[in-house]
Amino acid sequence: MADRFDAQAFLKGLDAIFDAHEQAKKAEPYLLQALTDAENAHDEAGQLTVLNEIMGFYRSQSRHEDNQWMVQRALELAAHMGLEDTEAWTTTLINAATSMRAAKRYDQAEDLYRQALDSALKTYGPADRRLAALHNNLSILYSETHRLNKAEAELREALRIIEASSVNADQDLDVASTHTNLALTLLEEGKKEGATAHARKALEIYRNGHLEHSAHYASALAGYAQVCYHNSLFVDAVDAYRHALAVIEECYGTDNDYYRVTVANLEDAVKAAEELGMKVPDENPYEGNAEAPAAVPPAAQPVAGADAQDADAVSEDAASADAAQGTQGVDAAKTLLEDAQSRDADINAALSRPPMTGLQLAKAYWEAYGKPLIAEKYPEYQGRIAAGLVGHGSECYGFDDEISQDHDFGPGFCLWLTAEDYAKIGEQLQADYEALPQTFQGYGPREQTARAQGAGRRVGVFEIGQFFESITGYPQAPAEDAPHEWLMLDEATLAAATNGQVFADPLGRFSKVRQGFKLMPQDVVLSLISRRLGMIAQAGQYNVPRMLRRGDGAAAMLSIDEFVKATASLVFLINTPTAVGYLPYYKWQFAALRKLSRRIATMLADVTEQLEKVLRLSSAACFGGAGFGEGGKGAGPAIDQVTATIDHICAEIVKQLKRERLTESDETFLEWQRPYVEEHIVSSNPVLRSL
């Protein structure tokens, strides 16, 4: 196991990067290396800590696509750690809602905010600032969905909570941030006087608390600039925007949406000022200066020397410029504030959707849309249509994770019909299925590769026989007296035909065919066990040591691979396919082995760990110690461990064969166990026996 992951040291190092304002260049490699270190140390709490920081950083850099799988992974990890019904979970819900809001999935965001509020009332105290943060963020959602009265109400509640809990509200960054949000909301409502007062108060708090180098300060400056702009004080707006850009560059760099939008707003302000003959300074008078812009005068002032007619023109042009800029600057300032706040949250996690496996998603989608569709349009077939998710794809095995969701994943399920029913309604039912909503609970539309479309599609409407034929080549399982057909079906194919879940099967026809593929005849099982014993002996017991003695590392590695595959297959076969299913294709073999090993009364349960040990040591054994953790000792120690582990596995297999009464021999070279196993084959068909 890797060394212990030190979360405090990690956070200290990250803080140093941010304090030095070097995050634009140094933060990402530092974060990704820390994530690797935490994973190698098997430290889940450390992984969650690092993931939270990565998400906060990616958001600050506007790298939303890179952030999606990070946030999903963090939520699943938090759930796995049992953090539900804790303060950390409440905070996670808040950040999840905030992420949905940033993606403009407003309905889901509001629902998550409401869940978070219910949870916060249980886990937070009435004066807890995190409760205020929730009201603050909810107000942003209301503002973006043009429910400004609700937005204002949420912000005033947030301000009440924060001021009541503050030691010194006149130097409190959170109070300042809430004043900025309230100013921007009032500005959208057309309440310019109130907006001016709150924008000025925010800057006053930053000056009092000497907080001018905080990332939050950029949002306050941008908000102040908006107030100036809408009051036709374009020169003051230019100064504030320039100052905001300097803070954004210092804290976040220039390659982000905040910087680009603020540049665009600055250009609008410069243009508006120049069109009115106002003199705009060439440089930012506040650059490198802790002083904030002056307070906003109560009303716009005419250009010096302008007559009354000019003043009217100024008013008209200012109104035109005000309309041209619209709410873009308001949105940018609010986004700046929200993202600066998220950098300081207890958990910076953000979610785009609730965590669900593919099977859970399929079942929920069936319950929400599939079942009502059949009840409404095909009531006479309700007792005849089977539904579920079976076949190709990691979600059908239950092994999918966030990485699996980049292809052939999304809302979907299978509907299975008899040949007679499919001929009558199959085509129309498929059309109705395709007309169902393409998104569900934040997932979708379904991403499909070319191989999973057309005849190879994985969801939709199928005739039962054709479905199984598309996977196995057979519309139903081969007969018991056709062992040659069974032996032509590899285990991965049978695994794909029998995995997944059946959500409904009132007629029972689909389940009967599916179960038929699980009922591999006992003679075939015994024949396969004999074959696996032969390969284990040939590849593992005989060829691994011979190839290693020859110094042919590549051949030894291939022999180890054949030994591992044969042993993995044997574990499933000896536990019987009817009970545990079949070994899936190579990618998921060890996931399936680990799952099987955790089951009560599994035979050869410890073999999985032993196989992984062989694989870990194989590089050093086959290609020498250099670069493989042997410290220059060479391949010798690894070779000894590999061969000893292979011998241990084979001895355990013999013990299990004896417990199953498949042999009476103590011979550990497994080739000589094959005749004892084959004595139990009843059929005289020669295809079942070894030569």
From TrEMBL:
Biased composition (Low complexity): 316-325
Residue ranges occupied by any DUF4037 domain in the UniProt entry: 486-588
Residue segments, region Disordered: 301-326
Keyword Oxidoreductase belongs to the record: no
Family matches, as Gene3D superfamilies: Tetratricopeptide repeat domain
Keyword vocabulary terms for this entry: Repeat, TPR repeat
A Pfam cross-reference name: TPR_12
The protein's name: Tetratricopeptide repeat protein
